[in-house]
């Protein structure tokens, strides 16, 4: 037993010596593997999501930006780049996007491109909120003075809105280490500068001819934010383009002021046809859909609803002109209301644009012609005397053929009218050969009244 125990002890000691002897080999292998793993991590491509905004900033664009930014966070993207070309937009949509940038763990870069693009009004706030910003040559940034889309403001309210915008933009510029003095000037004085001037003034960090050059400049850049900042890694980037979806593009097209204006008019046309001819269905369906699309667009546009009401009043006046003798007064009032409503519905100067005269004038002319000519002819045709059927006999003059005597409180017999023989009823007794006029038809019998021979 003693020998066996010694052998066991000796075996355990031998295993310990072997394990100790393998330690240097394990460390050596670890030294080979760790640099290789680190090298793989460094060579792994960095995901860069590229978003595109080309046009005014509204609810559709803001929701698109929020969704794509959330997807970039889920996919652990290294950077989200917003290629920007905008004349401005709604304050609420801009603030929604700025809040998304400030709260996102993924850094956001704004690149104003292509050449000839601009970052005006709301676009300035997005540039200031971004962790890194760049501009392509021949682009500009500025003109961020707030504009009220619902009408004129008094001096006190204008000052309040301006001061609020100044403070907001300065806070963003200070957080990102950009030019705070220019942030005040761009709001109060609506100044605008070129890409080269923006780089010199410390408004943007880079001046890059294309997206690839902008990403190359961003690699290793240390940005600032409330949490202390970070370093961008965009070497060997894996670029994923994420443009607007077909649904968002469709909604953006619907929210065009010209399209919304046409939808509004078509909606009223459709409802009028349906009310004039109940049961037609198709005009009512098309009109209801057009009106709903117009109201959908109005939710995303700076609409002056006084203009919408003027258009409705103008259409009502044109409709009344058909039935009321106003000697043209209602027509003139309707045309004036339509023109004023079309001009006031979208105020000029807003970033979404307004209805151009090339569309407005033909629309007013067609509407007036539609109501006065087409609708007028249709109503006249409805009032016109029938040319066939029993209704066509009303007012015709015939001759009594036979008197059949009294039937209750009326007298009856047979008459000849319009080439046919009919039964008749009359309140007075008639004689054969006497002229009568048809008053109405009741089933197979005609109601008549006697007429003088001179009236025939």
CATH classification class of the largest domain? Alpha Beta
Number of domains: 4
Mean pLDDT: 82
Let me know the largest β-sheet: 6 strands, parallel
CATH fold group of the largest domain: 2-enoyl-CoA Hydratase, Chain A, domain 1
Which structural class matches the secondary elements? alpha/beta
Shape: elongated
Q: What is the count of β-strands?
A: 16
CATH architecture of the largest domain: Alpha-Beta Complex
Distance between the termini: 152 Å
Number of helices: 14
Largest sheet, order of strands side by side? 8-5-3-2-1-11
Helix and strand element order: HEHEHEEHEEHHEHEHEEEHHHHHHEEEEE
Relevant CATH superfamily of the largest domain? 2-enoyl-CoA Hydratase, Chain A, domain 1
| Helix content range | 40-55%
List the helices and strands and how they pair.
Blueprint: H1 2-43, E1 46-54, H2 59-74, E2 79-85, H3 91-103, E3 108-112, E4 118-120, H4 122-129, E5 132-135, E6 140-142, H5 155-176, H6 180-188, E7 192-194, H7 195-200, E8 206-207, H8 211-218, E9 222-223, E10 230-231, E11 237-242, H9 246-254, H10 257-276, H11 282-300, H12 305-323, H13 329-345, H14 357-383, E12 397-407, E13 410-417, E14 420-426, E15 435-442, E16 445-450
Parallel strand pairs: 1-2, 1-11, 2-3, 3-5, 4-6, 5-8, 14-16
Antiparallel strand pairs: 6-7, 9-10, 12-13, 12-15, 13-14, 15-16
Helix pairs in contact: 2-3, 3-4, 4-5, 5-6, 10-11, 12-13, 12-14, 13-14
